[in-house]
Amino acid sequence: xxxxxxxxxxxxxxxxxxxxxxxxxxxxxxxxxxxxxxxxxxxxxxxxxxxxxxxxxxxxxxxxxxxxxxxxxxxxxxxxxxxxxxxxxxxxxxxxxxxxxxxxxxxxxxxxxxxxxxxxxxxxxxxxxxxxxxxxxxxxxxxxxxxxxxxxxxxxxxxxxxxxxxxxxxxxxxxxxxxxxxxxxxxxxxxxxxxxxxxxxxxxxxxxxxxxxxxxxxxxxxxxxxxxxxxxxxxxxxxxxxxxxxxxxxxxxxxxxxxxxxxxxxxxxxxxxxxxxxxxxxxxxxxxxxxxxxxxxxxxxxxxxxxxxxxxxxxxxxx
Amino acid sequence: xxxxxxxxxxxxxxxxxxxxxxxxxxxxxxxxxxxxxxxxxxxxxxxxxxxxxxxxxxxxxxxxxxxxxxxxxxxxxxxxxxxxxxxxxxxxxxxxxxxxxxxxxxxxxxxxxxxxxxxxxxxxxxxxxxxxxxxxxxxxxxxxxxxxxxxxxxxxxxxxxxxxxxxxxxxxxxxxxxxxxxxxxxxxxxxxxxxxxxxxxxxxxxxxxxxxxxxxxxxxxxxxxxxxxxxxxxxxxxxxxxxxxxxxxxxxxxxxxxxxxxxxxxxxxxxxxxxxxxxxxxxxxxxxxxxxxxxxxxxxxxxxxxxxxxxxxxxxxxx
Lengths: 319, 319
Known about the structure:
Two copies of one chain form a homodimer. Chain A is an alpha/beta fold. Chain A is built from nine helices and ten strands. In chain A, the strands form two sheets. In chain A, strands 3-2-1-4-5 form a five-stranded mixed sheet. A five-stranded mixed sheet of chain A has the order 8-7-6-9-10. In chain A, β2 (about 15-20) and β3 form a beta hairpin. The longest helix of chain A has 25 residues, at about 230-255. The radius of gyration of chain A is 20 Å and the shape is globular. Chains A and B meet through α7 of A and α7 of B.
């Protein structure tokens, strides 16, 4: 009898979420651990093993797991390694697929978190039936998963789809976590929005609800709350962020002409505050032949579900 | 007996080149007509019919043509139409596939000229054996043909791969033929290089061989000749052009992580004058995970051959 379940693991900078998934995409059970608790990757894998084994046993799934799929920042589908991640606490490269498969005695396939989310969205979410789309994850960083002709784009080395690191400001751009300047991620991630807030608060003099907060502690959530409360400066921050995203999307569309760009992650929950400036900017910047053809959609999956489901779907092909 | 030949037609802004090709990629015979001679597309198709029929008859290929493949600016593989081209003399959209197939009574498939060149390069040139590469055509405009997983990228609407229209200068950029500003094509095409020459000659005061020419008549060829003769300002123009291309390529690589970017077209013949600044700029601007992984190559095909061969390969699938 072939094994009826797979496991999906989503490794984020803060939390690691994992779940047991059946062939229909039902998440039988899920749980999470803190990603950054252990300084050594081996200790992290050990805790993951303990907690996941507990979950598997509690759900009578022992010896019924066909494969494990993992989505993680900078994880390479071809090599099974995490390469040069800036959002995880361990030195890279990390032979993640080997570490986990040796621990569990189960085949493991890995890919980056945004690719996993794109697969999840294609299988269960807003991208069902789409063969050409781009998933943009707006979280701590900006990630992307690109699907062309129904296939995830890995590139010749497994690292394709790093659209958070296209350069959106060529002159005087912000320093990015990657060491370069002007990357989309430095502006349009949750942390980028917080940086914009600090810049705007220093450069401008008008009153703002955000001035009630210690400037270094402001988060994108604070900016969102202030904008919802009608704060002009906070709304301008979303306008600025969405305008840059629209400009970047216009360039992405010249590349692969996707049917949709799908937004995913914490910042994507900002609704029209972000969506309206994105659409206006895209419409203003798009090459004529593409005008009005690419939909901007929001993910239809819960953030954890999409990533776990997407990662789990790799479990079916793990070997 | 199945028909042993196909016809490839490459429609450029100046010349239309066509040839009869066998299954091994031998060009049995070829000829050309001027593209812009006729104000009406029907008259152009009529001349093409006359000249191509003459060529076919002279080579005993009558009734032996399986299909016709055409590469043309802004030609859409899915619709068979030329959509919104700025480099052809006729009003768009043009139902090119229908016009030609009705005339000849032979099935016709079309795609844009850069895509045709990419197919030609993959079949017969520098991209043999590559599954992930980007062809950049540096001619009157800047075009691109993108291959991922061994397949040409058409996008959901057939228009993907317009990398000449990514924005490389977001502020104070040059007006592009597409009506937008700052496009790569406005800087790194043959005409873009000539524009750079005029800008540099006006902005700078040093002597230059280019000052011996009427400024409005300067071509990229003149800049090349001056640079080869050691002219500092002309060499700076190539430095400027290559630097922008390298910056753009760094962004392209974040998208699809190709094994190679292959340069094609008149300007690509500038050799190290262009290649060195491209490579330096790419190396300086590339995201670390991609560093040193993508080769920058020159096309190995004669310009006309690549386009005709690439277009002809579509003839085998025409129906």
